[in-house]
Amino acid sequence: MKKCFLILVVFMAFLQANAQRKDYLLTLTTSKGVAHMVLYDETPLHKANFLKLVKEHYYDSLLFHRVIEKFMIQGGDPNSKNAKAGARLGSGGGNLEKIPFEFTPLRVHKKGALAAASNGNPEKMSNPVQFYIVQGRKLSDEEVSKVEKTNDIKYTNKQRADYLSVGGYPSLDNKYTVFGEVVDNFKLIDEIAAVQKDEFNRPVEDVKMVITAKKTRKKKITRVYGYKYEKKK
Fold first, then answer.
1. CB-based contact 177:116 (threshold 8 Å)
2. Domain covering 24-82+90-136+177-225, topology
3. Max Cα separation, the chain?
4. Mind listing the pLDDT tens digit for each residue in 78-88?
5. Could you report how far apart the first and last alpha carbons of the chain are, in Å?
6. Which of 53, 81, 88, 185 could form a disulfide linkage to 58, CB 3.0–4.6 angstroms apart?
């Protein structure tokens, strides 16, 4: 009996260790191309919520309904599914339960950052379905230092280097929850941001999306996409 129990304990430990070696790799398929994303463990509420929606195929056929060049591309409004041309979008999901703010200084608005939309409420709570992906622009060292003072943030050398070399939109840091990032095909962000838009920044030609999730070995994600996981302390 003790031997069987010991075998069971070892087997469960093996399963747990194996699970920790994997993560969800998200595939964002749009009418403009495909990119992959990962979600952060440091923002567990947002990660769990987004994965749940993806597994339920919530985002299938929704639009990137608001795109602003050198800023971001936004999607996830449930009202965008089968929306008529020219219809004003952006209010969908506002009546659903919001997600608490999960700011972490480890995660900032560099280019490719995946973040939760918000209506500017004082608690900085997130819309549970709408998200945006940062395009931004490259900044100067002086601009980054100014944001540090304004938003009460201290950037790491790596974060500062990213803002200078890759770009982003640091003025949003400590105001919205960044819960993931694009890990390849950043050109897709540029192409969507550059499309022709109407007066409300909705693309004139619909940019539809489908998002799927697949458990993948972390080592493979790092090898193929260059994403490096934070070591657990």
1. yes
2. Cyclophilin (2.40.100)
3. 72
4. 999 999 998 99
5. 37
6. 53
